């Protein structure tokens, strides 16, 4: 028997899961900040494994709900696209943490602050965008938030150029230079992932406005 209440609750569930995925992106950045500030002997990969595991479960729940829902609050391909875009953020942060821990003994203690602060701003902004989808999304607000994400990406491009300039100055050993370049580029990629997810949110809002 058709149940409007059940249909509406499933719609809410999609939004709950998408917001939860955006929150996992924020939590991954928080774990990254803790990792970089912690003494070397206290640094571990556990929190990143947990965040990635939780996000994968959220993505699986979204896929399952799509398979079992006749009607969805947004187009199916839009839900899938946003879920995929969000899940790439914790995945890339985990990859950074793994490589950082492999090489931490030979790395300088600082150098990631500017990028990680941009990451925090980007994931906070993205979370707000995803959260606003539940109410249909105010186009003006979503566009403004998306513009912020693009400004963070522009700032990240300027930061990495400066970091690469320092890397090529000759003060780093060859192996150290290679490792740092890889890490810098991974952090920039996370910011790009946030921009990509924000673009999906904007496209969804435009289609439903």
Concise structural overview:
With 209 residues, the protein is mainly alpha-helical. The chain has helices spanning 4-37, 46-67, 76-103, 113-133, 139-167, 174-208.
Characterize the structure shown:
The protein has a single domain (4-208), classed as Up-down Bundle (Methane Monooxygenase Hydroxylase, Chain G, domain 1). 81% of the residues lie in helices and 0% in strands. The protein is mainly alpha-helical. The protein is built from six helices and no strands. Helix 2 packs antiparallel against helix 3 (76-103).
Keywords summarizing the entry:
209 residues; mainly alpha; Methane Monooxygenase Hydroxylase, Chain G, domain 1; 6 helices; 0% strand; disordered N terminus
What's the topology here?
Elements: H1 4-37, H2 46-67, H3 76-103, H4 113-133, H5 139-167, H6 174-208
Helix pairs in contact: 1-2, 1-3, 1-4, 2-3, 3-6, 4-5, 4-6, 5-6
Low-pLDDT runs: 1-9
- Going by helix content, strand content and strand pairing, the class is mainly alpha
Q: Report the β-strand fraction as a percent range.
A: under 5%
- CATH superfamily, please? Phosphate transport system protein phou homolog 2, domain 2
What integer is the average pLDDT? Answer: 91
CATH top level? Mainly Alpha
Enter the CATH topology name: Methane Monooxygenase Hydroxylase, Chain G, domain 1
Element-level helix/strand string: HHHHHH
Largest sheet: none
Identify the CATH architecture.
Up-down Bundle
Number of domains: 1
Please compute the radius of gyration using only Cα atoms.
19 Å
Please bin the fraction of helical residues. Answer: over 70%
Shape: globular
Q: How many individual helices?
A: 6
> What is the tally of beta strands?
0
The separation of the N and C termini measures: 31 Å
């Amino acid at each position: 028997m058709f149940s409007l209440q059940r249909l509406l609750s499933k719609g809410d569930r999609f939004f709950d899961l998408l917001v939860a995925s955006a929150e996992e992106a924020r939590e991954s950045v928080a774990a990254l900040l803790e990792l970089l500030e912690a003494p070397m002997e206290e640094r571990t990969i556990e929190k990143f494994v947990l965040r990635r595991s939780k996000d994968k479960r959220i993505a699986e729940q979204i896929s399952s709900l799509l398979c079992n829902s006749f009607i969805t609050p947004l187009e199916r391909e839009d839900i899938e696209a946003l879920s995929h875009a969000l899940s790439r953020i914790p995945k890339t942060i985990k990859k950074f943490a793994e490589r950082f821990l492999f090489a931490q003994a030979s790395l300088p203690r600082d150098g990631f602050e500017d990028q990680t602060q941009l990451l925090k701003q980007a994931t906070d902004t993205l979370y707000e965008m995803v959260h606003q989808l539940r109410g249909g999304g105010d186009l003006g607000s979503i566009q403004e938030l998306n513009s912020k994400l693009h400004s963070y990406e522009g700032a990240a491009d300027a930061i990495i150029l400066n970091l690469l300039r320092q890397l090529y100055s000759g003060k780093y050993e060859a192996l150290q230079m290679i490792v740092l370049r890889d890490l810098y580029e991974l952090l920039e990629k996370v910011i790009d992932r946030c921009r990509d997810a924000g673009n999906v949110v904007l496209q969804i809002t435009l289609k439903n406005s």
